[in-house]
Amino acid sequence: MKLFLTLIATISTIWSVGAQSIREQIAANPNLAGGIYTAYMVTEQKAVAAPRGYKPFYISHYGRHGSRYQTAQEKYDLPATMLEQAHKDGKLTERGVELMRRVRIIADDAYMRAGDLSQRGEREHKGIAERMATLYAEVFSGRNGNHITCFSSPSVRCVISMNAFTERLKEIHPKLELTRHASQHDIHITRPEKNMDIFYKKARQMAKDYQQQHTEDRAFIDRLFNDYDYAAQLIRKAYNSSDTHLFIGNMHDLAMIVQNFDNLPELHEFFTEEERYRMWHLFNIRRYLTYGPSADFGDIRNQDGKLLLRDIIERADAVIEGKATGEVATLRFGHDSAIIPLLAIMHAEGCDGRLAFADIERLPEVWCDSRITSMSVNVQFIFYRNKKGDVLVRMLHSERDIRIPVESDFYPFYKWEDFRSYCLAQCRPEAR
After folding, report:
1. In 90-195, where does DSSP find H-type helix?
2. CA 279 to chain centre
3. How many CB atoms lie within 10 A of CB 306?
4. Buried (b) or exposed (e) across 84-102, using 16+ Cβ within 10 A?
5. In this structure, are residues 63 and 284 in contact, taking their beta carbons and an 8 Å threshold?
6. What is the pLDDT of residues 129-164, one digit of tens each?
7. H or E stretch covering 396
């Protein structure tokens, strides 16, 4: 089999848990403080050949929607209006005036677009599809069929992501036939969140309380306003809070989300290196408690990941056993709320860190949202078969190989029977 083509690195940063700490990585590239707002990174991959005699014949995939706007319009409008009021009252520093100017540009761009996919988000999915179509051209050659089944969350940003992805696939392989679904009927595999509802409010409140207690924002406010008492009163009123920490949190969100767009002004310079890291850390805690494999809530949350994993196994079985005639790929499009538990329940390397809330300050050592679930994050399972009918599978996380605790003599390829048995074991009710 020909060696895989080498991906061109559009961003030089490559996640490496052992090489640098997340603090060092954020210092080198402030966008990595974005957590779930981190734009998709395409990184160079080494050429990998499948074991002799094996050829790819099927792909199973789950991808998060692409880069998007903030999901709440008030995250744009509130700080813009508040800063403009302070400027009218003569209470902004020179730096505060510049922040106000940039926030207004960002807010005007986002008007009536809350939650929408950005143009970059479309490009991300087209790029992923192009690389899939090129690297695994044999899958789409028509030798084993030409049908692809697609499932999307009904969310518009997910549907457009699906359309962008499949449009690019068909441009490269015009004979492909697509069946696309985007309804509540398939929500258990596109947005599995049933069990999250059991604990979400409690987990989120724990995270918010912790953030309030551990946010240091006096220096940030003093750089923007020339009257701290005025600023504190204005912020508390605007955010309907007895504290001021929501303002720096809002500004951090805006500073991170702009990387998902073309030609919007950056806000990184308004934060110190320590403030940027600390805000990432506090939001990483929130994502971990509400979506992740925490010791406090992870056992419940992981149940949702089992629904998606079982669907992946069952649809692959149908293809391998010849029950899904002509099916060469199954593509799913949804949200980070599905990717996080899927990777956790599979114990994918770097994605299953388990900590109790009492040890939460150690979280950067074991779990990082920016690494696990950027915009357009995807998990791909590439299936290979030889003439004897033996099947191998390769697992990719955002187009990079990722290890799971299954023995293999030829990693990154796993024997399907070993991979399948392991996954089904993780789907048992008692499995963590």
Report:
1. 94-109, 119-135, 156-172, 187-190
2. 18
3. 21
4. bebeeeebbeeebebbbeb
5. no
6. 999 999 999 999 999 999 999 999 999 999 999 999
7. strand 391-397
Place of tokens 């509400």: 290
pLDDT at position 211: 96
pLDDT (tens digit, 9 = 90+) per residue, 298-329? 999 888 899 999 999 999 999 999 999 999 99
What tokens were used for 2?
């020909």
Handedness of CA 396, 402, 406, 412 (dihedral sign): positive
CB 154 within 8 A of CB 30: no
Q: Which of 426, 329, 421, 400 is nearest to 14 (CA)?
A: 400
Tokens read off for 364: 């950067």
4: confidence class by pLDDT, cuts 50, 70, 90: very low
242 exposed, middle or buried (CB, 10 Å; 0-12, 13-18, 19+)?
Answer: exposed
Question: Do residues 64 and 335 lie in contact, with contact meaning Cβ atoms separated by under 8 Å?
Answer: yes
Q: Over 50: is that where the pLDDT of 6 sits? A: no
- What is the rounded distance in angstroms from the CA atom of residue 351 to the CA atom of residue 13? 19
What the block records as the tokens of 403 is 């290890």
CA dist., res. 61 & res. 395, Å (int): 10
- Which residue segments constitute the domains of the chain, with CATH numbers given? 22-426 (3.40.50.1240)
* Paired tokens of 424: 């089904």
DSSP 329-349: EEEEEE-HHHHHHHHHHTT-T
Provide DSSP, 35-58. GGGPPP--------PPPTT-EEEE
Tokens of 335: 């949200």
Residue 393 backbone dihedrals phi, psi, to 5 degrees: -135, 145
